[in-house]
From TrEMBL, chain A:
It is an enzyme of class 4 (lyase). Heterodimer of LeuC and LeuD. Coiled coil: none annotated. The keyword Oxidoreductase does not apply. The gene is leuC. Binds 1 [4Fe-4S] cluster per subunit. PANTHER family: 3-ISOPROPYLMALATE DEHYDRATASE, HOMOACONITASE, MITOCHONDRIAL-RELATED. Catalyzes the isomerization between 2-isopropylmalate and 3-isopropylmalate, via the formation of 2-isopropylmaleate. [4Fe-4S] cluster binds at residues 348, 408, 411. This is 3-isopropylmalate dehydratase large subunit. Its cofactor is [4Fe-4S] cluster. Belongs to the aconitase/IPM isomerase family. LeuC type 1 subfamily.
UniProtKB/TrEMBL annotation, chain B:
Catalyzes the isomerization between 2-isopropylmalate and 3-isopropylmalate, via the formation of 2-isopropylmaleate. It is an enzyme of class 4 (lyase). Its EC number is 4.2.1.33. This is 3-isopropylmalate dehydratase. Residues 9-124 form the Aconitase A/isopropylmalate dehydratase small subunit swivel domain. Pfam families: Aconitase_C. It comes from Aquirufa aurantiipilula.
Length: 467, 196
């Protein structure tokens, strides 16, 4: 080991470079590869066409999540195209000996929820998946990022991809978060300051009091949203919170192996004096519960504020106006009091037990607003079981909510969970792009607390009123 | 060889002067249900291109026969959002071989090159010049020379160089891809894995 101070990112990246290509990318070794039904079939087809196989099938894990129904999962999937994608995943994984947690499997759920909760995601690993929110796994001190289908084929056939090393950014948030300010708000705040392209070309390390004091669920929410500011991924140095979360999980290391790995994990932090290409500092006290008003995740603001004027934001006026027009909002509108038609809690961003605990803390003893359609979708069967075991299910039922079955659901609306054209949805997911939640849908991204407050009042509401 | 090799492309261009064009706009999620790489071009920019009754929207540039060509010119931060390679497939399948912007999202840029589309990043000023040239004459041609790493506006002679790493340039010029490269070094990878 050299004595030059190193960043966490460098330590993990450099130990996975198989070969450096001059004036080209690194040949980068992948420890864990997650696949799902939507971005893998063409990769498997590519293997067939080339007549090559899967090099290390035990390093790839498959789950069905993007295109699965969230009701009646015991019945055959009605849409023939969706059913075929699920069938192809089953066939492809069986053919090559890859673990497959399909529909109905007790381990099934959203890929970025099931990886960590089963102990597959570990500190210091390199993790990829054909899904941009793979950045979630960075919460464990792993380098994790989304890849395209050509790269899925590369990982299957060679356990490597070709990647130029990104630049390094550190985002420090220090101080204490205010009442009702959740990890989702911290992330939406950072994105609103940096914009959706502010971290493009970088890999981010999150540091400071706020992340140190955050649960693993919260860290996953923050790292999950790294891609929404353009970063390839984000990571947080592992600590006792991380180790406590992992220990005892089904596929986590055990016994002597645990001790050996733990000793290594404890070395995974940025050394004092290590240099970043960019350093960004925020103060926790400046963050309030957030909500988005436009058509990209950078168009967010404190819930008590008014929509900025086109001339006050960076970027083109025409693009900004197109966005507000799509949303049916005007400059200087207040968001508080805007009517809400749908509420969605779930997704790889906010579909973990802590998110449902937060949601339940507000809906408890209240009733869902009559005109609101709410979709409450756990991130996995394990989360679903926790919801039932902890009594959250009963709180939801009494308040007039129904619990659906796990999957990506209305986050990308590939299945039937689509927000109708023109309707407004307060959503705990990650993207408010035009039509993301269904053609013509209008998405307001927010935390589980803001979603709960909207669900019981039927309008955009500051959740601090209920806390 | 997974795609046609790329050397010099001279073509008129289709202007899309909108910023932050995300991959959900390029191809909405409901069109990601195929298990083969076929027909994605039909749904390129689906919800900007067609109304809810599947009728073409006259004001969208792909429905305007005045604008044709193998080069798509987009606003800043092109290809943000989802990692779906289907977005690059849709652009390629529609007939584009090059996308020009003043800034690309990382994953899209990688996917584009991997499917044989050349992403050309230019300065905001040069992007503006391109939009102006097309506005003045929709048939205005651009020339993209990969070997020389240079893009020019043929009518005005204005040109700018662009970056691409030597490895990817070699691949695109010859129609090679990363999988060919990785297959050739499999022994080295297996030995790396066994020493971990």
């Amino acid at each position: 080991m050299s004595n030059t101070p190193n960043t966490l990112f460098d330590k993990v990246w450099d130990s996975h470079v198989v070969r450096k290509i001059e004036d080209g990318p690194d040949v980068f070794f992948i420890d864990r590869h997650f696949i799902h039904e939507v971005t893998s079939p063409v990769a498997f087809l590519g293997l067939e066409t080339r007549g090559i196989g899967v090099l290390f099938p035990e390093k790839t894990f498959a789950t069905a999540d993007h295109n699965t129904p969230t009701i009646n999962q015991h019945l055959p999937v009605e849409d023939p195209l969706s059913a075929n994608q699920l069938l192809q995943l089953e066939k492809n994984t069986a053919k090559y000996g890859i673990s497959h947690w399909g529909l109905g499997n007790p381990k099934n759920g959203i890929v970025h929820v099931v990886g960590p909760e089963n102990g597959i995601t570990l500190p210091g690993m390199t993790i990829v998946c054909g899904d941009s929110h793979t950045s979630t796994h960075g919460a464990f001190g792993a380098i994790a990022f989304g890849i395209g289908t050509s790269e899925v084929e590369m990982v299957l056939s060679s356990q490597c991809i070709m990647q130029p090393k990104p630049k390094k950014m550190i985002i420090n948030v220090n101080g204490t978060l205010g009442k009702g300010v959740t990890p989702k708000d911290v992330a939406l705040y950072i994105i609103s300051k940096l914009s959706t392209s502010g971290a493009t070309g970088y890999f981010v390390e999150y540091a400071g009091d706020v992340f140190r004091n955050m649960s693993m669920e919260g860290r996953m929410t923050v790292c999950n949203l790294s891609i929404e500011m353009g970063a390839r991924g984000g990571m947080i140095a592992p600590d006792q919170t991380t180790f406590d979360y992992i220990e005892g999980r089904e596929l986590a290391p055990k016994g002597a192996d645990w001790d050996k790995q733990l000793a290594y994990w404890k070395t995974l932090k940025t050394d004092e004096g290590a240099v970043f290409d960019q350093v960004i500092n925020f103060n926790a006290a400046d963050i309030e519960p957030m909500i988005t008003y436009g058509t990209n995740p950078g168009m967010g603001m404190g819930i008590s504020k008014h929509i900025p004027k086109a001339t006050d934001v960076e970027g083109g006026v025409a693009t900004y106006e197109k966005s507000l027009d799509y949303m049916g909002f005007a400059e200087d509108d207040a968001m508080i009091g805007k009517k809400v038609d749908y509420v969605f809690i779930g997704s790889c961003t906010n579909g973990r037990i802590e998110d449902f605990r937060a949601f339940a803390s507000i809906v408890k003893g209240r009733k869902k607003a009559d005109h609101v359609t709410a979709w409450v979708v756990p991130g996995s069967h394990i989360v679903e079981k926790q919801i039932k075991d902890e009594g959250i299910f009963d709180i939801l039922t009494e308040a007039g909510f129904e619990l659906r079955q796990p999957g990506c659901s209305a986050c990308l609306a590939m299945n039937d969970d689509k927000i109708p054209a023109g309707k407004y949805a307060v959503s705990t997911s990650n993207r408010n792009f035009e039509g993301r939640q269904g053609p013509g849908s209008r998405t307001l991204l927010a935390s589980p607390l803001v979603a709960a407050a909207a669900a019981v009042t039927g309008v955009v509401t500051d959740p601090r009123e209920f806390l | 060889m997974a795609y046609d090799s790329f050397s010099v492309l001279r073509s008129s261009a289709v202007p899309l002067p909108i910023e932050n064009v995300d991959t959900d706009q390029i191809i909405p999620a409901r069109f990601l249900k195929a298990t083969e790489r076929k027909g994605f071009g039909d749904n390129l920019f689906r919800d900007w291109r067609y109304d809810k009754n599947d009728q073409p929207k006259a004001d969208f540039v792909l429905n305007n026969p005045t604008y044709q060509g193998k080069i798509l010119v987009g606003g800043k931060n092109f290809g943000s959002g989802s990692s779906r390679e289907h977005a690059a497939w849709a652009i390629y399948d529609y007939g584009f071989r090059c996308v020009v912007s003043s800034f690309f999202a990382d994953i899209f840029r990688g996917n584009a090159i991997n499917v044989g589309i050349l992403p050309v990043q230019v300065s905001p000023e040069f992007l503006h010049q391109i939009f102006e040239a097309i506005e003045k004459d929709p048939k205005a041609e651009l020339e993209v020379n990969l070997q020389e790493q240079r893009i020019s506006i043929v009518s005005t002679g204005a040109s700018e160089s662009f970056d691409i790493n030597g490895y990817k340039k070699h691949n695109l010029l010859n129609g090679f891809d990363d999988i060919d490269y990785l297959q050739a070094m499999k022994d080295e990878i297996v030995s790396f894995a066994s020493n971990r």
